[in-house]
Write a structure and sequence with these properties.
The chain has six domains: 59 residues, Helix Hairpins, CATH 1.10.287; 226 residues, D-amino Acid Aminotransferase, Chain A, domain 1; 82 residues, Nucleic acid-binding proteins (OB fold (Dihydrolipoamide Acetyltransferase, E2P), Beta Barrel), CATH 2.40.50; 73 residues, DNA polymerase, domain 1, CATH 1.10.150.20; 71 residues, 5' to 3' exonuclease, C-terminal subdomain (DNA polymerase, domain 1); 68 residues, Rossmann fold, CATH 3.40.50.10190. It is built from 24 helices and 22 strands. The strands form five sheets. Strands 12, 13, 14, 15, 16, 17 and 18 form a seven-stranded antiparallel sheet that branches. Strands 2-11-10-3-9 form a five-stranded mixed sheet. Strand 13 and strand 14 form a beta hairpin. The protein is globular and about 90 Å long. The structure holds adenosine monophosphate and zinc ion.
Length: 662
């Protein structure tokens, strides 16, 4: 009883702190203390799984893996909205509904049209029970476990909420988070995401919810749905929803006349550039819920609401030059250099051209007057050319055919838009980029060595690849500029200690295309050693969770190259980790088995048990699915787990029968 109470108190406190933070904007304790409480709760939950709660604050970290999202039919259809683009169209809309209301002009609300992925949240007795995407409006995907990781989605409500209701909103990725995420991806050698909206909806469909937890998402609510919830006005219902823990942006207002509506639209025309998230317009709704009911729906959208879309801001400027960047994987990106021009509050000098096809499609010439637009994407893009202003002499842009850095002829892999410099072992930008990636914080994290120094060491002829780092000597370094004894010592110490870094980091550090940190970890867990990984066929690779064809092919190609194998051998003989610790298996009786551990055990701790499974070749999985081979259940296995196991017809083994198996 005491433990149960302790767990419940911790949960309540964490829910409360979350509420204060996201609704009242108050931090009652430091992040550190918050993390401590969370940790304490996690430990207790781990130890006492019988007090399972699917809405515990610990759900925020994710961990559940969903292969196929279940399709759910919406109780109430999720409609789209009619669009308007001008004041006149708004007025026409108001005229139409006024007629339908026997000449009465209703009152309105104005909201921003948040640009993300729509979501329908269901609550029962104050608990979040389900989160479903809009899908085709009639049915969507159950993405509950991913949505639970979003920090401002309340898992438990506060105050005086209705027993049963649904609430709809938009899951967005705020711009700052989007940019930080892309920075991280670029430094990991991954493709940056195109725009926040697609990234937000993609994040909801990740199979591993702990990955969704890493995505900076936010949920903004815009409509309450349910029967007899006790409200007569849309505005009032959303204000109430705030007090239960939902984020309803303060930009929601009441508008009592067309003039109020138009003022709202105009006031956001420019201010929208300063919002922390993207919007794609304004939504105007009839405020009175009875009026809404009187007006009803067309086949596609409510008659009582409409959106107003701003024109994306465009400016004209001159294309001065096209330059080309070489990435560390050799990928070439063309960049338009523009005469600087002001666009939505920032000076734009460059625009991405993505690839050669893009240049062809636009039929660009140097000196062209081009139109630049900031649409959904952060990086401005060229959307067209003013051909009327073009003289006769302008030359078509000829895409480079050799690397701007090393002059090697570029190649283009079939089916890919990008050109590549194939001179992997001789192209300075690529070499430096690769070494910088290897030493980077998310990879080997070599202290005492920075990106600038890598470049210096390369140009001094001291390193040509990552393995060369391990033969650096103090005598080579001391004569270099800005290399005092202390910095040399630090550098060498950093290199030396990198030999202790786990295999997964080494694998990631190699900078294989499409092998980001998460993929590297998955591969390391699955194959345990570099030699196993090198020996794996494409079929074996794609059979691993989350490893697709693209990644598999990239790996096979990488290991086909003798110079890569030589590099790996040199790294290995320098003492860099090429296998997971303790890979010597006790046996392989559990090979190919996916096992879930639940409850507490007599003779071993849960962690010992998990280790034992791995030592015998099995895999520990955190959640029960149809792929689960069996469950090892101790004292107090959670009832929800038990029910799920029974439903999927999965065998439950006792501690002793499991041990006798080994
Ligand atoms: P559309 O997809 O253009 O037809 O617009 C309908 C979508 O706009 C809805 O599915 C919502 O996801 C989204 N939306 C964003 N903000 C709001 C808002 N404040 N009110 C209603 N819908 C919104
Ligand atoms: Zn090159």
């Amino acid at each position: 009883m005491e433990i149960k109470e302790k767990i419940e108190n911790l949960r309540a406190r964490l829910h409360q702190l979350n509420f204060e933070y996201y609704v009242n904007d108050k931090s009652l304790i430091s992040d550190f203390d918050f993390d401590q409480l969370m940790k304490e709760l996690q430990d207790l939950e781990e130890k006492y799984p019988e007090f399972d709660d699917s809405n515990s604050p610990t759900q925020r970290v994710g961990g559940q893996v969903t292969k196929n999202f279940e399709t759910i039919v919406h109780k109430e259809r999720m409609y789209s909205l009619g669009n308007t683009y001008s004041e006149d169209e708004i007025k026409e809309w108001v005229d139409r509904i006024t007629k339908n209301l026997d000449g009465r002009i209703p009152s309105f609300t104005c909201e921003l049209k948040y640009d993300g992925a729509s979501i329908n949240l269901s609550y029962s007795q104050g608990d979040l029970v389900r989160a479903v995407t809009r899908g085709d409006g009639t049915q969507g995907d159950d993405v509950t476990s991913n949505v639970k990781t979003i920090p401002n989605v309340p898992l438990k409500l506060q105050g005086d909420y209705p027993d049963e209701f649904e609430i709809r909103g938009e899951i967005v990725m705020p711009l700052a988070g989007f940019e930080a995420l892309n920075k991280k991806r670029i430094s990991n050698g991954e493709e940056p995401f195109m725009n926040p909206r697609n990234t937000a909806s993609g994040s909801l469909k990740l199979q591993d919810s702990s990955e969704t937890a890493q995505r900076p998402l936010s949920c903004l609510l815009y409509a309450l749905v349910g029967n007899n919830l006790g409200f007569t006005e849309h505005y009032q219902s959303l204000v109430q929803a705030r007090s239960w823990g939902f984020t309803v942006p303060e930009t929601l207002v009441q508008a009592n006349s067309i003039k109020d509506v138009l003022d709202y639209i105009n006031s956001w025309e420019e201010k929208r550039a300063t919002l922390p998230f993207e919007i794609d317009g304004i939504v105007i709704k009839v405020n009175d819920l009875r009026d809404q009911e009187l007006l009803g729906f067309t086949a596609k959208s409510p008659r009582w609401a409409i959106s107003y879309k701003y024109k994306a801001e465009q400016v004209a400027t001159t294309l001065e030059a096209v330059t080309y960047q070489v990435g560390r994987t050799g990928a070439i990106t063309p960049v338009a250099n523009l005469t600087p021009v002001l666009l939505s509050g920032t000076v734009v000098k460059r625009a991405s051209l993505h690839n050669a096809d893009q240049i062809d499609k636009l039929d660009l010439r140097l000196g062209d007057e081009v139109y630049v637009e900031k649409g959904g994407e952060i990086i401005p893009k060229i959307i067209g050319v003013n051909k009327n202003k073009r003289g006769v002499v302008e030359q078509k842009i000829k895409y480079i055919d050799s690397c701007p850095d090393c002059d090697t002829a570029l190649i283009r892999i079939e089916g890919e838009a990008q050109h590549y410099c194939p001179n992997i072992s001789g192209c300075a930008t690529q070499i430096i980029g690769k070494i910088q990636h290897y030493i980077g914080r998310t990879a080997m994290d070599i202290e005492g060595l920075g990106g600038e120094t890598v470049s210096l060491l390369f140009h001094e002829g001291l390193i040509r690849n990552t393995a060369d780092l391990y033969s650096l000597k103090a005598d080579d370094l001391l004569p270099l500029e800005r290399m005092a004894q202390k910095s040399v010592d630090n550098l060498l110490l950093g290199v030396e200690s990198s030999k202790q870094k786990p295999f997964a980091k080494v694998l990631f550090g190699l900078g294989i295309r499409f092998v980001g940190a998460t993929v590297a970890k998955r591969l390391a867990t699955h194959f345990s050693s570099m030699s196993n990984l090198i020996a794996a066929s494409e079929e074996e690779l794609v059979s691993v969770d989350d490893i697709g064809e693209r990644i598999a092919q990239s790996l096979v190609n990488f290991f086909k190259d003798q110079s890569n194998l030589d590099l790996i051998n040199r790294l290995a003989s320098s003492g860099v980790q090429m296998e997971n610790e303790s890979v010597t298996l006790a046996s392989n009786v559990l090979e190919g088995k996916s096992i879930v551990v639940s409850g507490v055990f007599e003779s071993l701790s849960r962690n010992d048990l998990k280790e034992l499974i791995e030592q015998h070749g099995g895999k520990v999985s955190s959640s029960i699915s149809s792929k689960t081979s069996f469950i090892v259940a101790g004292e107090g296995m959670g009832p929800s787990k038990k029910a799920k196991a029974e439903k999927l017809n999965i065998e439950i083994k006792s501690e002793s029968s499991f041990l006798s198996l080994l």
